[in-house]
Amino acid sequence: MTTSAHRPDAPTIPTSLSAAQPGWVAHADVIVVGSGIAGLTAALELRNQVGRVLLVTKDVLSSGSTVWAQGGIAAALDPKDSPRAHLEDTLVAGAGLCDPAAVEVLVNEGPDRVRELMERGARFDVEADGEVALTREGGHHADRIAHAGGDATGAEISRALVAQLEAVRNDPGIEIIEHAQVLDILTSAGKIEPQEHDEDRRVACGVTLHVRGEGTRDGVGSALARAVVLATGGIGQLYVSSTNPSQSTGDGIAAALRAGADLADLEFVQFHPTVLWLGSGARGQLTLISEAVRGEGAYLIDVEGKRFMTNVHEMAELAPRDVVAHAIVEQMEKTGSDHVFLDARHLGAEFLKNRFPTIYESLLAQGFDITAEPVPVAPAQHYHSGGILTNASGRSTLRGLYAVGESACTGVHGANRLASNSLLEGIVFAHRAAEDIARRMEAGELPQREPQERPGQSGLVMAASRSKIQRSMTAGAGVTRTRASLAQTLETLGSIRTDAAIPEPVQGDHFTLPQAAEWEATNIHVVSLALASAALLRAESRGGHFRADYPEQDSDWLLRVVTRIGLDGKLVTDTAPLTRGDHH
After folding, report:
1. How many domains are contained in the chain?
2. Cα(571)–Cα(582) distance, integer angstroms
3. Is the Cβ–Cβ distance between 381 and 283 less than 8 Å?
4. Which residue of 49, 460, 468, 559 is 20 to 30 Å from 366, comparing CA positions?
5. Are 170 and 62 members of one domain?
6. Is the pLDDT of residue 535 over 60?
7. Strand 25-27, strand 217-224: pairing
8. Distance between CA 44 and CA 49 in Å, rounded?
9. By three-state DSSP, how is residue 406 classified?
10. Residue 157's closest CA among 169, 171, 146?
11. Quick check: is 570 in a domain?
């Protein structure tokens, strides 16, 4: 098994973004970046346990990816269900690459965290007897998906958590900065590699931010803290089309890599099987049709009107998402089409309107009536199982830096996330991270360190390169990959200039001032390089990673692919055991 750790052509990664010098400084005990379920939960838990919390979000508080979650949140709430059964389903979906200890944490602590959500005001749908209504989704062998507003679970959870934070917005123990893009993680002068003395290690001690015209905070500034929690969401904008909101540009993952943290499982990208197909020219955030629709009995048919999932998997349309997505791609190739159809007509108009009001209205607004006709669908990027490598308390490999939610790799999802485990992972591990930070601070750990400039170069990619990156990733590192396609993607990515902030008298068009669009393009570029490198290294197919040239699972690959910046500044992609130690 050959790793890319020693590839002479491995790209050199900038260790910071090109940006103006900070014009202001803020101070807190803990900085939380992101306002989805993980970030909001972390901030609310920390507010009661540390002196001062700074919560920053790229847009407004209610704009996190959680808002878009339709189906629900999985937990063993039914007395007939059990955490053990939930664990078994999660391990099966993860295709051998889950960290069993992390899954144990998820399924055993999950029910209590969901009940806490209810105590914080989240209103889940209930049965006639007042018990929480539970449904089933792909990969689950029990009804354990709690939902709200039919198909608006994320929006309801976000509403409840945002309301809790709005109620304490004027609390001196918490500050909220909206319209704030995290640029880089500030670090002390230590080294990345393990040292004999802990004080020699690099430590996260704050972040630099760019704030768009919000009160007294504006422009680039620095925020100093004893710990940083990244809850920055997914990577959807690496691809031409995605179900993710526009702000999902991998900012936290890129910042963590530049600061010296390890990333893991980057190659496992979940392409949701049933995303509204609007033609080959569709761009940006596309309409998701929740797996819960198939959970209620809708089925897939090809362009010839034939149902095909019954010949693919014993669970048919309720097979794990990677199985369904690959089956759709294969069926499209067989029929020479670029989509299939989701048929829910037999479920009845009244049921569909009441159970899935958001989906019904969203489709109707785009000219499709799910109660009267099959709806065209095709897979699109949806969720990232990889991210910043953490332990069960949310600690990354960089001391003082935590990651929770989709930006983290806890080991829970393995090669393929089980449906509706994402919201659960967000609250469970955000809760654990907050407890760990508070405990360490009370013990006198995590003192405030002084930030120092890191060795290495700063970088900036032209915003105009964004579409080139997205097209290359979609073509070479999408649903189906090969060595040749990934090599081509890496060649294309390697041709993109990363020094756009440096003026060139001869080539005057290759220069731009550091600003939001360029920072996003730079983050998309660096995460794309890391993801494609990891996908090239893993010479097998498993879960959300399908290599047409290695179509089978290989037991030699029961390993984690880890990505970091080496001492020479080059991207290192290597393998590691599935289990993790107790990170600093």
Report:
1. 3
2. 24
3. no
4. 468
5. yes
6. yes
7. parallel
8. 9
9. helix
10. 146
11. no
Q: Where are the beta strands (DSSP E) in 277-324?
A: 284-285, 299-301
- Asked whether 269 and 561 are in contact (CB, 8 A), the reply is no
Retrieve residue 525's tokens: 């570029």
The per-residue pLDDT for range 462-521, each reduced to its tens digit, is 999 999 999 999 999 998 899 999 999 999 999 999 998 876 655 555 677 889 999 999
Tell me whether residue 321 is one of the annotated catalytic residues: yes
Structure tokens at 244: 């993710």
Q: For 39-84, what is each residue's pLDDT tens digit?
A: 999 999 999 999 999 999 998 877 766 766 667 899 999 999 999 9
**b/e for 346-374, b at 16 or more Cβ within 10 A?**
ebeeeebbebbebbbebbeeeebebbeeb
Three-state SS string over 187-250 comes to ECCCECCCCCCHHHECEEEEEEEEEEEECCEEEEEEEECCEEEECCCCCHHHCCEECCCCCCCC
Token reading at 363: 């489709």
Closest residue by Cα to residue 368 from 380, 379, 359: 359
Query: CB count, 10 Å around CB of 561?
Result: 27
Give φ, ψ of 205 to 5 degrees: -140, 25
pLDDT tens for 302-346 read 999 999 999 999 999 988 777 888 899 889 989 999 899 999 999
The residue segments making up the domain with residue 361 are 275-382
List the one residue out of 311, 294, 306, 424 whose CA is nearest residue 347.
294
Name the strands in the sheet holding 204-214, side by side, starting at the edge strand that comes first in the sequence.
Answer: 25-27, 217-224, 204-214, 180-187
Q: Are residues 41 and 153 in the same domain?
A: yes
Q: Is the dihedral of CA 38, 270, 265, 81 positive or negative?
A: positive
pTM of the model: 0.91
Under the phi-then-psi rule, with left for phi > 0, alpha for psi from -120 to 50, and beta for the rest, what region is 60?
beta
Token pair of 475, please? 């073509």
Helix spans in 366-515 (H): 421-442, 466-476, 483-494
Q: Which two tokens stand for residue 400?
A: 């003082």
Do residue 11 and residue 82 come from a single domain? no
| Dist CA 72 CA 103 (whole Å) | 18
Helix (H) or strand (E) holding 44: helix 37-47
Q: Of 136, 217, 258, 321, which residue is the catalytic one?
A: 321
- Chain segment 76-118, per-residue pLDDT in tens: 999 999 999 999 999 999 999 999 999 999 999 999 999 999 9
CATH number for the domain spanning 472: value is 1.20.58.100
Q: Find, among 295, 347, 337, 338, the residue nearest to 316 by Cα.
A: 295
Closest to 69 (Cα-Cα) out of 240, 310, 234, 297 = 234
Beta strands in 25-169 (DSSP E): 25-27, 30-33, 53-56, 73-74, 134-135, 145-146
CB atoms closer than 10 angstroms to residue 484: 11
